[in-house]
C-alpha cells in the first residue's frame, strides 16, 4: 500500500512559523519542512493542498521522465487568465507549435544582433544616475530589462512608454503573484482591469503597427506575424515574453548587485575583471565570453536566489514517487530554491561563494542546479538572459562604483523571487 505523503504537524509547523517570522520569508518555512519531512511533503491549507517536491530525483521526474503526465495549464490560475494561450500555459501540440515559432528569435545565433541593444538599454538608464546619489537597483534593473526586451524581441523603443506603463506593468505582475486567491480561488480581484486593458491596448497597437509596415522579420514579433498567427494569439505570446523575459532578468540583476554590494571583495574582483577585459571599450558578445568571474557571480546569484524559484504543474494521472502516490488532480510543485540549498549537494549552501562555479571545481550533480528548469520545456530565454546579465553588469561596473546602503532585504515571492523592499545603492561615477 502506498505511504501517505508527509504533512507538517505541531512541532514542525511551529518551527516553520518561527523561521517565517525570523526571516520574513515563506521560503524559510519551506526549508524547515524539507529538512524535517524529506523531499516530498504536502501542506494542507484551506482550499490549497499542493505537494512540494525537492531534489534531483524529483526534478528529473517533473522535467523529464513524467513530464507528459503533468500539465502546465490550470484554467483557474490568474496566470492562465492573463496569458490566455501564451506558450507558458499551453500543453501538448499547441505548446510545441508556439515554441517552434519563437525558438529562432531566441537562438544563440541571434545574440550577436542583440548585444548592442543590451548595452544601449543599460546606457539609457545609467546615464540618468548622478554622482553620489542613492538609487534602488530593483527599480533601475527593471527599467533596463524592459528597454532591452522591447528593443531586441519586438524592435520597439520603449523609453517613451516606460513611465506611462510603469504602474500597469507592476499591477499586472501583482495579478499573477501569490496572494489570497490561492486559498480562495473565486475571490473578487477588483482594481486590475484598467492596468490589464492598458497593457492590451499597447500590445495590440504594436502588432497593428508592425502589420502595417512589414519589414524585417527575424525578431520575435516578426516571426509570430510571419507564422500567420492572429492578433489575439500574438498578443498572448508578447505578454508572456514581456513578463517571463523582463521580470526574471530584473530579479537576477538586482540580486547580483545586492550580493556584490554585500561582498566588497567580490565587487572589486568583478570590477577589476571588467576593467581589464573591456580595456575601455564598449562591451560586446566577445568580451562577455571572457568575463569569467562575473559569470561565476551570476551563477551563484542564480543558485542562491533563483528568480523562478519553483515550477508548478497539475498531475494528470496518479504519479508514483519514492513509494508515495501523488493523486491525479494534485497541484505539484518542484522547488528550485530548496534544491539549490540542499546540504547533501552544496557545501555551506547559504554562503555566497562564486568560486564554487570556477573552472576546475566539480560541476553540480545532474538536476541539482536548475535556474532555467530542464528538459524539453526548459527556459527558452536562458541564453538571452545569461548574455544580457553579463553585458548589463559589465557596462554598469565599467561606468560606476556601487556601494550597498544598509537596509535589510528579504526574498519576496512575487511573480519572481525579488529582493524586497529594494536594493538601495550609492552611485559614484567612474567615467
Ligand atoms: C534570469 C532570467 C531567467 C530565469 C532565471 C528563467 C527561468 C525559467 C525557468 C526555471 C523556466 C522553467 C519553469 C518550469 O519548469 O516550471 C522558464 C521557462 C520559460 N522562460 Fe525563462 N527565465 C529567465 C529568462 C527568460 C527570458 C529572457 C525569456 C524570454 C525572452 C524567458 C521565457 C521563458 C518561457 C517562455 C518559458 C516557458 C518555456 C516553455 O514552457 O516551453 N525566460 N524560465
Provide structural commentary.
This protein has 431 residues and is α+β, with helices and mostly antiparallel strands. It folds into 2 domains: 133 residues, Uridine Diphospho-n-acetylenolpyruvylglucosamine Reductase, domain 2 (2-Layer Sandwich); 267 residues, Orthogonal Bundle (Cytochrome p450), CATH 1.10.630.10. The protein contains 16 helices and 12 strands. Helix 6 packs antiparallel against helix 7 and helix 7 runs antiparallel to helix 11. The protein is globular and about 65 Å long. The model has no long low-confidence stretch (mean pLDDT 95). The site of protoporphyrin IX containing FE has 23 residues, from helix 11 and helix 16.
Summarize the structure.
With 431 residues, this protein is an alpha+beta fold. It is 50% helix and 11% strand. The chain binds protoporphyrin IX containing FE.
Oligomeric state of shown chains = single chain
The separation of the N and C termini measures 69 Å
CATH architecture of the largest domain: Orthogonal Bundle
What is the helix tally?
A: 16
Global shape: globular
Main sheet makeup: 5 strands, mixed
At the fourth CATH level, what is the homologous superfamily of the largest domain? Cytochrome P450
The number of distinct structural domains comes to 2
Q: How do the strands of the widest beta sheet line up side by side?
A: 1-2-8-5-3
Give the rounded overall mean pLDDT. 95
**How much beta, percentage-wise?**
5-15%
Q: Which class of the largest domain in CATH terms?
A: Mainly Alpha
CATH-assigned fold name of the largest domain: Cytochrome p450
**Helix-strand string:** HHEEHEHHHEHHHHHHHHEEEEHHEEEE
Hetero compounds: protoporphyrin IX containing FE
Q: Let me know the number of strands.
A: 12
Radius of gyration: 22 Å
Unreliable stretches covering 5 or more consecutive residues: none
Amino acid at each position: 500500500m502506498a505511504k501517505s505523503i508527509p504533512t507538517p504537524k505541531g512541532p514542525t509547523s511551529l518551527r516553520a512559523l518561527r523561521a517565517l517570522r525570523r526571516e520574513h520569508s515563506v521560503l524559510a518555512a519551506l526549508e524547515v519542512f524539507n529538512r524535517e519531512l524529506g523531499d516530498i511533503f504536502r501542506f494542507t491549507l484551506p482550499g490549497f493542498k499542493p505537494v512540494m517536491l525537492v531534489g534531483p530525483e524529483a526534478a528529473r521526474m517533473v522535467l523529464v521522465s513524467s513530464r507528459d503526465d503533468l500539465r502546465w495549464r490550470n484554467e483557474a490560475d490568474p496566470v492562465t487568465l492573463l496569458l490566455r494561450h501564451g506558450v507558458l500555459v499551453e500543453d501538448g501540440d499547441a505548446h510545441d507549435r508556439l515554441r517552434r515559432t519563437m525558438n529562432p528569435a531566441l537562438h544563440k545565433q541571434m545574440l550577436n544582433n542583440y548585444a548592442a541593444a543590451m548595452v544601449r538599454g543599460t546606457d539609457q538608464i545609467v546615464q540618468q544616475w548622478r554622482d553620489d546619489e542613492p538609487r534602488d537597483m530593483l527599480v533601475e534593473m527593471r527599467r533596463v530589462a524592459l528597454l532591452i526586451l522591447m528593443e531586441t524581441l519586438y524592435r520597439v523603443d520603449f523609453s517613451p512608454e516606460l513611465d506611462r506603463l510603469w504602474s500597469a506593468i507592476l499591477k499586472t505582475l501583482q495579478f499573477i503573484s501569490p496572494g489570497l486567491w490561492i486559498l480562495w480561488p473565486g475571490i473578487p480581484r477588483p482594481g486590475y482591469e484598467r492596468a490589464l486593458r492598458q497593457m492590451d491596448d499597447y500590445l495590440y497597437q504594436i502588432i497593428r503597427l508592425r502589420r502595417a509596415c512589414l519589414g524585417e522579420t527575424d525578431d520575435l514579433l516578426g516571426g509570430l506575424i510571419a507564422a500567420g498567427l492572429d492578433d489575439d494569439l500574438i498578443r498572448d505570446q508578447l505578454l508572456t515574453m514581456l513578463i517571463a523575459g523582463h521580470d526574471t532578468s530584473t530579479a537576477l540583476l538586482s540580486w547580483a548587485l545586492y550580493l556584490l554590494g554585500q561582498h566588497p571583495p567580490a565587487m572589486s574582483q568583478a570590477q577589476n575583471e571588467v576593467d581589464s577585459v573591456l580595456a575601455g571599450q564598449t562591451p560586446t558578445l566577445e568580451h562577455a565570453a571572457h568575463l569569467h568571474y562575473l559569470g561565476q557571480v551570476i551563477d551563484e546569484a542564480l543558485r542562491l536566489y533563483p528568480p523562478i524559484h519553483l515550477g508548478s504543474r497539475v498531475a494528470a494521472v496518479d504519479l508514483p514517487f519514492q513509494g508515495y502516490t501523488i493523486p491525479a488532480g494534485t497541484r505539484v510543485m518542484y522547488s528550485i530554491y530548496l534544491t539549490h540549498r540542499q546540504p547533501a549537494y552544496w557545501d555551506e549552501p547559504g554562503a555566497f561563494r562564486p568560486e564554487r562555479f570556477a573552472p576546475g571545481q566539480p560541476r553540480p550533480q545532474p538536476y541539482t542546479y536548475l535556474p532555467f528548469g530542464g528538459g524539453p520545456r526548459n527556459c527558452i530565454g536562458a541564453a538571452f538572459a545569461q548574455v544580457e546579465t553579463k553585458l548589463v553588469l559589465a557596462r554598469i561596473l565599467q561606468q560606476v562604483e556601487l556601494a550597498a546602503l544598509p537596509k535589510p532585504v528579504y526574498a519576496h515571492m512575487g511573480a519572481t523571487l525579488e529582493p524586497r523592499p529594494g536594493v538601495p545603492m550609492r552611485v559614484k561615477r567612474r567615467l
